[in-house]
């Protein structure tokens, strides 16, 4: 019963008008919650103690780690949406993965830039071609490729199917990024939060990190809903312009 | 260079990218909303809304 209700609610969202109404209700709350979490997260990021080894540069981690998590989460959301496009043909699935690609590219860029700025004082180098850094750089290039593909094709349904296949093929990179630090000998340190035996970092660093991660995640979902709404509007404008051109042609 | 420089630059770059992202999404939305309003103004409506107007008559 609960499952069928969930499926009914999910199917209801196939109607873009209902989806737009839901987004209009949710967005103000999500935006306020995001701003509040960022205020708390930034306060904690700058008031907690520095690390005994990293010193003050540990503060870069409160931006770098959430951005890096989001770069992978955004791609996972796109992969789920790609399945929605290819298997269920959900009308909003391709809107979702098209809208998410620029957001994923932006968060990956933040992860790469802040990682590099942490690497210089801590490792003594801006960049090394180790497995973690290289696989994240490939993820960034994949986001750019998907954005270019979506913009190159005029037919949205064709672009959606092609993008969906590419996204699912590219998803192989996500476990490679996650486990690269275990599978290969990398300069990048291994996981210290998401581990089977629990986090290995002290609570005074973990709390600001988790608050910032939550703030970044909510920021992503807020922007994703806004970008999906924009894409629906863009398609409506296109459809209405085509309809107006047809009507004008008939009158002529 | 001091650690403060790397920390300030990290937060600065992250804030700039997030601000540009928010601005781009917001401007895109405003542009599309204006286009829809313009189409509405010249009398081009979605088929569903035309049907609902006809039904009301």
Automatic annotation (TrEMBL), chain A:
Recorded superkingdom: Bacteria
Record's keyword terms, sorted: Cell inner membrane, Cell membrane, Cytochrome c-type biogenesis, Membrane, Transmembrane, Transmembrane helix, Transport
Q: How does it sit in the membrane?
A: Multi-pass membrane protein
Query: For the Cytochrome c assembly protein domain, which residue ranges apply?
Result: 11-188
Q: Name one GO cellular component term.
A: plasma membrane
Name the Pfam families on file. Answer: Cytochrom_C_asm
> Can you cite a GO biological process for this protein?
cytochrome complex assembly
List the GO molecular function terms.
heme binding; heme transmembrane transporter activity
Q: What is this protein called?
A: Heme exporter protein C
User: What is the organism of origin for this protein?
Assistant: Pseudorhizobium pelagicum
């Amino acid at each position: 019963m609960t499952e069928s209700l969930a499926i009914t609610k999910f199917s209801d969202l196939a109607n873009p008008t209902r989806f737009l109404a839901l987004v209009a209700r949710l967005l103000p709350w999500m935006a306020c919650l995001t701003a509040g979490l960022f205020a708390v997260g930034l306060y904690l990021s700058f008031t907690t103690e520095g690390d005994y080894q990293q010193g003050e540069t540990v503060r870069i981690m409160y931006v770098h780690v959430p951005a890096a998590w989001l770069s992978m989460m955004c791609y996972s959301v796109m992969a789920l949406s790609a399945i929605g496009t290819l298997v269920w043909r959900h009308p909003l699935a391709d809107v979702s993965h098209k809208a998410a690609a620029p957001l994923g590219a932006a968060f990956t860029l933040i992860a790469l830039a802040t990682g590099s700025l942490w690497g210089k004082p801590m490792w003594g180098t801006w960049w090394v071609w180790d497995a973690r850094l290289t696989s994240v750089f490939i993820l960034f290039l994949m986001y750019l490729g998907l954005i270019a593909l979506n913009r190159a094709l005029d037919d949205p349904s064709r672009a959606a199917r092609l993008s969906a296949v590419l996204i699912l093929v590219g998803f192989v990179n996500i476990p490679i990024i996650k486990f690269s630090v275990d599978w290969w000998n990398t300069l990048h340190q291994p996981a210290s939060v998401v581990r089977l035996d629990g986090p290995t970092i002290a609570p005074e660093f973990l709390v600001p990190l988790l608050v910032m991660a939550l703030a970044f995640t909510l920021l992503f979902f807020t922007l994703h809903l806004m970008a999906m709404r924009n894409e629906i509007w863009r398609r409506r404008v296109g459809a209405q312009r085509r309809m107006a051109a047809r009507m004008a042609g008939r009158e002529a | 260079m001091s650690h403060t420089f790397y920390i300030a630059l990290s937060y600065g770059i992250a804030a700039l990218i997030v601000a540009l992202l928010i601005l781009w999404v917001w401007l895109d939305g405003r542009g599309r909303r204006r286009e829809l309003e313009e189409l509405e103004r010249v009398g081009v409506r979605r088929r569903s809304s035309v049907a609902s107007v006809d039904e009301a008559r």
